[in-house]
Every structure is written in structure tokens, then in C-alpha cells.
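Pilot study result, target chain (515 residues):
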Amino acid sequence: MSNSWPSLPIWLFAALPLAAQEGDPLSAIDWLSESVSTPASGTIVTINEPPVTAAGGALPQPVSTTALDAPQPDGVGLIAPEVSGLPRDLWGGGLTLEIAARLTADRAGDLPALRQLFLTILLAEVEAPADAGGRGDLLRVRIDKLLALGALEQAAALIQAAGATASPELFRRAFDVALLTGEEDRACAAMAQTPALAPTVPARIFCLARSGQWETAALTLQTAEALGEISADQATMLARFLDPVLFEGEAVPAAPDPVTPLDWKIYEAVGEPLGTDRLPVAFSYAEIGPRAGWKAQIEAAERLTRAGTIPPNVILGLYTEREAAASGGVWDRVEAFQEFEAALASGDPARIGPSLTVVWPLMAEAELEVPFAVLFGKALIEVPLTGKPAEIAFHIGLLSPQSDRTARQHVPETPTEAFLVGLATGDIAGLVPPDSLGRAVAQAFLNPAPSAEAQALFDANRKGEAILIAIENIGRGVEGDLRGVTEGLSLLRMVGLDSMARRTALELMLLERRG
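Predicted structure:
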């Protein structure tokens, strides 16, 4: 593997535990719409085994066989190995069940660099696990994780690469992505053009109405209600959807739990949209378009930008769309962002410095420091600033894709700055870490020591699982167990992801994410 991390878009950062129960198809999320009927004989997976440990051995015990010429949907990806920097045999001898358990772990607190690494793993084109058997189980796990993270465009592209109509399970996911991205007519057309798919009653009624077949939709609803194929609340909402005038003045039934994308779309259609702030982050995607109010668009885009699943220029466009409508909260960020951008455009350091000291704390409060650095890090390198603005600009540069250039142009004024420069350039020999976290970081570069579990997986050629363990270790370190920082960064360097380790180390030192 290469010793340098490729320059993938930094917004490809990348978070629900695998909750498959006996009798349920493998799935990492519980809010998928029941848009099509799925075969009763689907793959059943239950995760009830402890994680692999060094003491128990890293090699899988069962022996699996797969026909060499069998199709391998689990190997489908969007990023080739020469671009991702990950080996084609990423999973090595690992088994689907154990890999899935790692992929579906909660990663809501990951640093931006680690989200990028994790998302790259989900999207990478690699060989299928040894026991894949052409079933596509791990492909569905990866798609579900993308959906859980709000990475809808990436999930849609992966589904398309695999074939959206290849199975009812994949179509269900493609249908929900279409609903949340405003492409419901396209999804309904695809359903109608695929005889092998059997739409459920709510999906059939929804699509009939979308295509203007109101009478057929009403007859379908009456028949389904008479046969008991839908619940009373479903029947009420669908009837309201077909003819809202009949229900004027009547209370709308409470939203189901969980809310599915089809539920969300129907509530929106009857004029009772459900707020997305308390729904899974994927629903935020439905509010970044022009159909939502400006404030709702900004808040949805902030959630998705924070998750690392949309490019920073989306929030740039929304922040600068018009003048702030009020003050406080999101409006303070809008106003400060606009003033900073105008100051930067003026090229006047006397104006840029003060505006930077106002906008940066607001970006930090919203945990949008890295997207902000991606947008402005390069421009700030050229601005001659002093004092506090210069310190902020230095940190922004280190968090940006121009971290190496920023470090090489900066003359350190303190031991802490010297240590940060050393991390960015890859040479901390002889430098003094500023605190206990710095010492944990330094050990990974001076005396690497991965965890026994990650080392065992690495030795067994299960690099993918070892990397996932490393991400978990660093997350544990952010929460206070600094040994995890050393172990995780050490493993990243061991597998050839040195620049990713340095980027992660800089984020550990500069972002306020400590538990």
C-alpha cells in the first residue's frame, strides 16, 4: 500500500447498530419504507458473537467456500483501490457477520478525518468476504450505513452500481432515497416498469396518485381497508392524502414511530410536514431543497455538513443566499459568515482579522470547523495577519487540505505551534508535546503500539477490520482513554495510512471534541 493518503474530497467524511433479530432480514436501520414486498426466504443474520480478540485468535473458525465464477455484489464499490488507498483484499479472511458487526457500530462521535476514512471504506471497491456467496449481505449493510449517515447520494450511486432492481431489498432502499431527494416520480415509474416488484398497498396508492390515477388509488384504498391489509391510521392518512378537503378541521393522526420516508412524504403532501430535526439525519436531505424555508434548509445542511456527507459549498451557498432574517442561533452564523466572506473578498487584513475572530467561534460551536477550513484555508494562507487572527488562521490552515503548505510556511512561536507543525509535516522528533493528549499522539509516531486486537487482525490479513478497530480506539481516546489514541493512530500508520493518521492527530489537537 501507498504510504500517503490520496486526496479524496474531504467532504466524504463519514454513523445505527446492527439490530437484526431472528427472522428479520439483515438491516442496520429500522425506518425503511415498506414499499415493496420482500421474499420470506431472505438471508437471516443474527449477531450474537463477541468481537474477535487476540486471546481468542483472529482467524475465523468456520471454513467457507464460494464458487469462483459466482457474482459478488459485496465487492461492488465506487472508489477503485488506486484511488482509495485501500487494498483490494481489504477483508482478507474475514467473515461477513464479523465485518458487519464492525461496520454497524455507532460512529456519531468520530472526528471528521475518521468519518472520511470510514465513508471511503463503505464506498471502496474491494474483494467480497470469503463467505459472501453472491448474496449481497455486506452490500446491504454498507448501503444501510450510508443511509444512516445521511449519505444519500453516495448510497444511490452504490445501489445503481449494484443494480437497483436486483432485489426487492435494494429497490426499497432506492425508493426511499428517491423520496428524500425529491425524485419520487422517478421511483414510482421504476416500480411500475419492473413487474418482478410487488408494491405494498401504501406505496401503490402513493404512486397511483402521483401519476394522476386518483380513482384507481381510491378504489385500491377501499379494497385494502375492507380486507384489513392496512391499519386504521394508515387508511386515514392515505384517504386524507387522496382528498384533503374531506378532512378539513380534523386532527391529523399522530406520526408513526419510526417515521419512514413514505410516511414523511405523505404528511408533507397533506400540509402537515414533520420536522426533521428529531428524525434520522437522512431526513435532513429532504429539507435542503427550495421547498423548505431558508432556516430549515440551513439547519438541515448544517447537520449533513457536520456528518460529512455533503460538500461544504452547499452550506456556503445557503449561508450567503440572502440577509439574515433575525438574530441568535443560526442567524448569528449567517451574519458572521457573510461578513467574513465579504472581508476576505476585500483583501484588507484589517477587516479580515476581526471578522475571523467572530466567525470562527461560531463555526466551532456548530462543529463546522473542518468544512470552514476546506472553504477558506487556502485563501487565508495568503493573508498577512497578526495576533489572535493569525493564530486562528494557522489552525484553519492545519485543518484544511493545505495543512502541509501551512506548516512549512509558518514560523512557530511556541512549543505547541512547533509540535503542530511537526505533526503536519510528519516529523516530531525532539519536539515537546503540550499536554497528555499530545503525549499520546506523539507515542504513535515515535513508538507505535497498536492494540493487541488490531494487531491480531492485521497479522491475519484482515486489514479492514483492523482499521475499523483503530477508528474505534481513537474514538475511545476522544472520550478520555488516551491509550486508545496511541493504539488507533499506530494502526493507521502500520497499514500505510500515515497522512490520515497525521490529519487525525491534528484534529485531535485542534478540535474541542474531548469527552
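One observation from the pilot: The two ends are 33 Å apart (CA to CA). A full batch analysis is planned for the follow-on phase.
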